[in-house]
Design a protein that fits this description.
about 300 residues; alpha+beta; 4-stranded antiparallel beta sheet; 3-stranded antiparallel beta sheet; 6 helices; about 25% helix; about 20% strand; globular; PPM-type-like_dom_sf; Protein phosphatase, Mg2+/Mn2+ dependent 1M
């Protein structure tokens, strides 16, 4: 990839210059390709073993003074500093990717097998709504419009529910991830995989441009943590825990455990709010300070 400073693609230097292609673009492309290739490998292994299943994926790569965060799904990474909380990823759910999913159903209506409507409505329509004027959204719309309800609008919506309750084809709460090649809508042959992207969104953090402090960390966690704690709540817990545990060589691991404990609603929870997460919770706390002492050590 010529990351050592050599010319990118020496056979087409003019193209590289015109397009403004940088070394980090090659890292982003490598991550995107790696997710896609990993998804294909998982698909072959699931088929060979007769197993089913899937997962979301969140990856952080530290390389030459930059941190690359690649996300496919609803896990999340944030940067926590003394005076800053910065999201390093975005969640991909049926709601956040509504237009992409609706567009796919518009181009390939056979994917819905006549069982679903791609249109979004404020609520599930019933027979009594026939002929009534209701709000709706289609793939080409960021705003809302009106339409008279037809019989085809009474089908189950492609995306149903709001917030954490939103589901794709009544089944999945995420719109990107790995696996799920054999997943079908209950009691049908309708596949969900065509709507699931394995390609991540990649965020680049220029670590070398930050004046890093000893307690600057990246927190990576599955949605079980973020279901009950906001970015700001997690940041407060980080800032309250680390300064008082500077002598503990395992303080970052202990902080991760404490964050998990805070989702269990137990007495003595650091948030004091007794919130409970019923989802899987995985947490990584990654110190950045040692990574900021020049790019040669990355």
């Amino acid at each position: 990839m010529h990351l050592s400073g050599h010319c990118i693609c020496p056979s087409d230097p003019q193209f590289v210059e015109e397009k403004g292609i940088r070394a980090e673009d090659l890292v982003i492309g490598a991550l995107e390709s790696a997710f896609q290739e990993c998804d294909e490998v998982i698909g072959r292994e699931l088929e060979a073993s007769g197993q089913v299943g899937g997962c979301t994926a969140l990856v952080a790569v530290s390389l030459q003074g930059k941190l690359y965060v690649a996300n496919a799904g609803d896990s999340r990474a944030i940067l926590v500093r003394r005076d800053e909380v910065r999201p390093l990823s975005s969640e991909f759910t049926p709601e956040t990717e509504r237009q992409r999913i609706q567009q796919l159903a518009f181009v390939y209506p056979e994917l819905l097998a006549g069982e679903f409507t791609r249109l979004e409505f404020p609520r599930r329509l019933k027979g009594d709504d026939l002929g009534q004027k209701v709000l709706f959204r289609d793939h080409h719309m960021s705003g809302w419009g009106y339409k008279c309800v037809e019989k085809s609008d009474l089908k189950y919506p492609l995306i149903h529910g709001q917030g954490r309750q939103a589901r794709l084809l009544g089944t999945l709460a995420v719109s990107r991830g790995l696996g799920d090649h054999q997943l079908r809508v209950l009691d049908t042959d309708i596949q969900l995989k065509p709507f699931l992207l394995s390609v991540p969104q990649v965020t680049v953090l220029d670590v070398d441009q930050l004046e890093l402090q000893e307690e600057d960390v990246v927190v990576m966690a599955t949605d079980g943590l973020w279901d009950v704690l906001s970015n700001e709540q997690v940041a407060r817990l980080v800032r309250s825990f680390l300064p008082g545990n500077r002598e503990d060589p395992h303080r970052f691991s202990e902080l991760a455990k404490m964050l998990i404990h805070s989702t269990q609603g137990k007495d003595g929870s650091p948030t004091g709010e007794g919130q409970v997460s019923y989802d899987d919770v995985s947490v990584f706390v990654i110190p950045l300070h040692s990574h900021g002492q020049g790019s040669s050590g990355h």
